Amino acid sequence: xxxxxxxxxxxxxxxxxxxxxxxxxxxxxxxxxxxxxxxxxxxxxxxxxxxxxxxxxxxxxxxxxxxxxxxxxxxxxxxxxxxxxxxxxxxxxxxxxxxxxxxxxxxxxxxxxxxxxxxxxxxxxxxxxxxxxxxxxxxxxxxxxxxxxxxxxxxxxxxxxxxxxxxxxxxxxxxxxxxxxxxxxxxxxxxxxxxxxxxxxxxxxxxxxxxxxxxxxxxxxxxxxxxxxxxxxxxxxx
Length: 238
Description:
The chain is of the alpha+beta class.
């Protein structure tokens, strides 16, 4: 019974350690859903079978300022709309067309954005700051790649972008990346908010078109240390 209690306590410490790491603002998350919008697929049949990944950030009462991401595919491709709804970082200017037949694929274009009105059809425009190199370092404006409508089947996305307003607080989407169902690879990046000079870094893997975060090593390490300490105490008590 005592051994079971120790294991439960260790698990609790591990969860608490992970929670403490995750609670630092800003928190970046990803949600993935297959594209099933019949109207969008009718307007662009190449959308069928793809997966849309929405990049979200939560900053509480603080102000999100900028983020970066580098997506590297080893198979598959990034969807970029080639018609008039294609956008790189200015969805606010074209979203009025997204409910119109012929342009309903617009919401599934891959782009970066700022908060806007916070709805699926209402992302705000973003300021592109440059690209990101393979080591995760920012690069100069003009080096960004992977989200232009002239590159419909990109295999690399490298962007750093920021908001254009001073009220990007709360939780909201800051990017959409639609990938083919056979897409595999990795991604990484950072997010900043105005009251915290330390960014939140994130890393993840891409499998079957879905982007999944990998837990930060710090959280896993703290949990392992807690487990090891409790088990050592258990052995000493025997």
